Protein 1
Amino acid sequence: MEQSYLDYLKNLEIEQFIWTIIALLAVTIFIVIINLFTNRTKKDTFLILGQSDSGKTLLYVKLRYGQFTQTHTSMKENEGYIKIEDNGKPLVKEPIHIVDVPGHEKLRFKFLDFVPITRGIIFLIDSSTCVRNVRSIAEYLYEVLSNKDISKRRIPILIACNKSDLITALPPERIQPILENEINRLRSTRTAALEHQDLSEEVEFLGYETKDFKFEHLENEVQFEKCSVENEEFKEIKEWIVEIFQNRK
Ligand SMILES: Nc1nc2c(ncn2[C@@H]2O[C@H](COP(=O)(O)OP(=O)(O)O)[C@@H](O)[C@H]2O)c(=O)[nH]1
Ligand SMILES: [Mg+2]
């Protein structure tokens, strides 16, 4: 009698133990699946960044509606799932989440909210005024490139030199070294300031300490293209988005 009661207890313990293991396994698998799923859907966003008036909203609108619509300086970001097409031909099956972040100095920090879900960044430049505005363009770009998350995840960046239709527009081959020089200059003042405040943990040092700044020194893949959104010459931007989107892990 006593023996069978002991057996009963032992069986009960084993059964409880097995059920506990099964429950733990089920919870773990569930968490892993949820993580995989959310990570996958969460990092597929493309950001359109750049100064005010560089053509961000026009690019967004043309990607979305494929035709000209009047744009206005917006205070809020535009976002939506867009089917990227070229001449009515879809370049990718799934719609892609695209966000146009206003370039106004007081609003552009909003891009930080989207970094955790970002797959790629299109940084627009007005090629016709970029020499005059090089300081503020470089400052914005510096903020983007030195962001820890952007650099750690090696988020690819397309620097799209827009308004190439204007006579005063510089080609990307001219714009790139001008930006590199300006970023180099910013880097020395910023690094000195950071060392002073001991904030160097929060931003990434750009490039190599012993060399002048070059985009090719970055971990991120940075590509330059020229385009004219107004004249419908921005196929390279669409192809870049689709390529990065399809190569996602
Ligand atoms: N000439 C020319 N003007 C452009 C081009 N792309 C945009 N624009 C003009 O630049 C101005 C600012 O465009 P918008 O999209 O509002 O810039 P955002 O402030 O960056 O969103 C508008 O008047 C556009 O028509 C382009 O490729 N060529
Ligand atoms: Mg805009």
Protein 2
Amino acid sequence: MASAHGHEPWLADLCAGWRRRQDWVLQQQIACARIAAPTGNEGTRAAHVQQALAMLAGLSVSRDRSGNVCAVVTPTSRPSSVDDAAPIVCLAHLDTVYVSDDAVEVVRDGSRVCCPGIGDNGRGLAALLVLADTLHAPETRARLRRPVHLVATVGEEGEGNLLGARTWFDDAAVRGLRPSAAIAIDGPGDESIVHHAIGSLRLRITMRGSGGHPWVHAGAPNPIHALGAFIGIADRLGDGTRRQRTVTITRMHGGDSLTGIPQQAWVDLDARSPSAAGLARLRQELEHAAYAVARDATCHDPSRPLTVEVAVLGSRPAGALESESPLVQAAVRATQTVGRKPRSASASTDANVPLARGIPAIAIGAGGIGGGAHTRDEWYDDAHGSAGIERVLHLVLGLALALADVRPRATR
Ligand SMILES: [Zn+2]
């Protein structure tokens, strides 16, 4: 029977226990962040998390074909119906945008810790360990109604293109496993609830021409000049702070020598939109602009045409869950239960993958405050870090123990 789980006495005791272990949680977070895990090279950190999960909770932990660390906690009693058996999946990404493979230098001053990846996603990984420890405890496991999958994912950042989350949900579908809810635990914070998954597209636009001498071949179509015109148009295709569509040129390269008309140049761009249709339209406009500037440049000397190549470097599907959906509402209640103010947010996270497949999914932080994410100066402050951990526990236990119902209304 559903009840106000915020007032379940054993859950209150459990949270009090984690408040006392706040520093232990921070130590787990630091231990994870200390191991370099750039996207595509998460193996060492994955091995650490695998070992920690196995040691903490006595779980059998495996690695899937993409390198994800996967564990599952199953109910001790058999579910009373198929519906009850639909699992919950909690994901925390292993990788960081920080590119060095060297050990990461961690500076701690009281509750404040500085190092790349300490919050994003050292905090999420620490929360995953807390969940493992909690769920496997006999008093929790006896109450479990649904299996809970704990997954430390690879390839969430940048060029990883959500590889780990895609692989997990692909393999789950093959096994006939359809989670009733997915929760990405990502970074610090204890108020925001990400239920709009921003879709994104990373393109490389390459232009090639015949090149030549700046004087002898003056007027030959120049890929850098053409890409310059393209950048001007691309910039205007975004809508700035309205954020219904953004376009960012992220990298550029071109030219071969100081005194030659270049034969080739490219730009990388990142385009985003909260709607799948909006993103598709934006892609069309960007490609149209690239071909248009190349055509214009070629007009000056049709014997030496500029060619355009558009390569997709990555794409993340968009998706959204309504504020009224049971999962968002469960997250709202969990946030209020720990005395915080729920806030709706949009972002691009592992939750994009299940959302795009129609599985209710959100992303939430795991407590504390932080800044400088995706820089070498990232910092995290654990002064009030426990509230976020408690929020995660209230949410996940609420769902897994069927204290709150998360099934989408339409399917009941
Ligand atoms: Zn993250």
Protein 3
Amino acid sequence: MASSMDFLKACENRRTIYQITNKIPISDARVEEIARHNVLHVPSSFNSQSTRIVVLLNDEHKQFWEFVKEVLKPQVPEEQFPQTEKKLDGFKAGHGTILFLNDPNPVKKLQSQFALYAQHFPGWATQSNAMAQYHLWTALEAEGCACNLQHYNPIIDQKAKGHWNIPQEWELQAQLVFGGYAEGAREAVDKGGKQQQPIEERLFIHGAKN
Ligand SMILES: Cc1cc2nc3c(=O)[nH]c(=O)nc-3n(C[C@H](O)[C@H](O)[C@H](O)COP(=O)(O)O)c2cc1C
């Protein structure tokens, strides 16, 4: 079994990288393997398994970002659109986009089965979905990919659902974009470090021994 250090190192290595390319150091089959691992091993409340994952690779990934451009164009002031398009082309330059959705049906079923907890199930589904996002983000970066997390929902929902046959009721939560590192992208992020609020204001430990 890998040591816990490997896991902690992988968590530390996970960063937001915007400068990405379409060449990743692993195969699409390996991406699928990691996505399957995610679906099988990320926990959910009452084991509801309400997260749905749609992996878009290569041309399908590019199509997703073309759709985002299409839906944003009429919504963004004309003079600002070149800037928006440049940003979206940055995501499109990657290799893949992973859509994270929630299926409300397992949530509704649990709500009717366990009335006492009814109000909590939607929040727990969101938390489980976020765990799935973190798993894939960390795992892909551990494999040498560069990732960033985006939220073009709900503006992109209808186009994406129509094109990739995604059930209407599934709720899009987030999009994880990944690719290879553009030259110098990792070094730039590492050099910049990470701004941290004081740990003492964020972490509280009671009862530690030795
Ligand atoms: C819940 C959540 C939502 C985020 N949404 C976005 C987003 O919409 N667009 C974006 O570029 N980054 C987004 N981020 C990335 C954060 O800005 C980033 O993780 C944070 O600044 C820390 O930097 P790091 O990822 O390099 O550690 C999000 C992160 C989290 C955890």
Protein 4
Amino acid sequence: MARLADLMHRSVFKAVSLLGSKGQGAVLRRYFDWWHRRPDPWHLSTDSYERRKYLTTLEQVPAGSYRRILEVGCSEGVFTELLATTYPEAEVTGVDISETALERARERAGNLGERVRFVHADLLEHDLGERYDLVFCAETLYYVGRGDRLRHASDRLGALLAPGGLLVLVHPWPESRRLHGPADAALSKVGERVDHEAWRPYAVSLYQGSTRAALDVS
Ligand SMILES: C[S@@+](CC[C@H](N)C(=O)[O-])C[C@H]1O[C@@H](n2cnc3c(N)ncnc32)[C@H](O)[C@@H]1O
């Protein structure tokens, strides 16, 4: 039953991705603002499965000092806040296509100071103009739809990495093989953990960008 619901969900977002990228962005913006009409629509702040996934994700990141951290598809900033408390010296940025979600993210992170900020942008169109030591993208890539949009999204995520930076992708397993496939092809995979025990298994895949210079994708 859950698989059928997932199939229908993916088909809807693949259909939206038949639009031009501006049209797709406009539909996603309206959809995710509507979806966030009520606070925390996925129960990210209270669900024990989500909490476990967040902690498993953080466990995969090698110890180190990361100065600039980005979360793409941050919703209301639950994981962004955890990143900010885990890395108290880092500048942490959350990006989402829903301004409604970001208003709540800013409220949530209100006591964390100016080192935490939120930017309204489309993963497929953004022009953040900055590079990051750590980039996270979880439970978001299945919204970008067809294969060429997925490759484009992966290229843009890779282009956000500072030299030697790490990209962490987290999506349901085994669908993660398709969703993380373009990153597998373009970047060096340096680790993966699949949590098979969770009721909805997921993969945390870790990639390292080029140690010389970031790619420029536009
Ligand atoms: C399921 S939530 C994931 C939240 C968070 N990553 C987590 O795992 O806790 C997916 C988020 O991705 C955002 N999103 C979807 N498509 C996007 C796009 N093209 N650009 C930026 N954000 C997007 C949605 O607005 C939503 O807040």
